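To the structural biology subgroup,

Please find below the input and predicted structure for Thioesterase domain-containing protein, which we are adding to the shared reference set this quarter. The sequence is reproduced verbatim from the submission form. If anyone notices a discrepancy with their own records, reply to this email rather than editing the shared folder directly, so we keep one authoritative version.
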Amino acid sequence: MPPSVVYVHGNGNKVRPELLKSQWDTALFGHDMGAASRMAYWAPLRYPEPLPDFGPDPLDGAPERDEEAVDVPAGAAPEPPEDFVARTLQEARGETGAAAVEESAAVAGRLRPDESALADWLRDMTYLADTLAEAGTPEEPSAALPLEALWLPRSGRTAVFRLLVQHAFKDVYAYFFGGAGPAMREVVARALDGLDGGPLVVVGHSLGTIIAYEVLQEQGRAVDLLVTVGSPLAVSEVQDHLARPPAVPAGVTAWRNASDLRDLVALDHTLRPEYAPQERITDVLVTNDSRNHHGIAEYLSQREVREPVQRIFGDGGG
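Predicted structure (tokenized):
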């Protein structure tokens, strides 16, 4: 049988599945792969309607409408990190209303024991977001961190990064605590159905790496190459919530994990120390110059990501 690739998309709403699959194909292979690729499309479990065709994906660092998501008044102070963390936790739980954001200590006091580790990840992402937002633009040559893709004032950069943090955390929270996990895993399991026999590649992004990983752990099916990009699987607070202890899924021959050092969702960039056997894993650092350094097209177009996939397909997929 010819090789196949199954994609598992990440956090946030997406365009319709056929278009999303074609976009991933084009970024990874340079052209649409037709029946050789499948998209495990779980977005409808969380979002009632797909994004407009070719509309910007806010989880790639682009605002949902024009510049609305980063339209911060000049000189405006960003929301204090602890307030942002508390509000995001409340929204993830479905706690809405006009009440003012509670003091962070009070929110922490209400955390269930199994929530507190994930809340630590949210806090760390938020503080790193603000640190990155402090980095300079070309008008600020003394900046310690280069952010060529974010030619925005600091308030705008803060908004871009916090948009990623907020959406990423809410969907991960829904996966682990909101009852969405089993249905998300079922979507991936269905996408894998009927692919036994030929070489198989599984590619996951962001939350999609967690979903794909847990399905492969459960099934033990043969996978020639697992590719994870922008993955939080190396984050200890995420590992605490996995159904099984961290390990390379039994059927996975090779695992390529790629991340950008500025990607807030990845946060920790090396899987090898925690996922045995280590010799099956290759951790690579790449440059993702999407606005928040988490965009999927920028990850899939990197040579370190494309080459091992294309070797399995031969000549870039034919």
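Summary notes: The radius of gyration is 19 Å. The chain has two domains: 4-52+180-317, 58-174.

Regards,
Lab coordination
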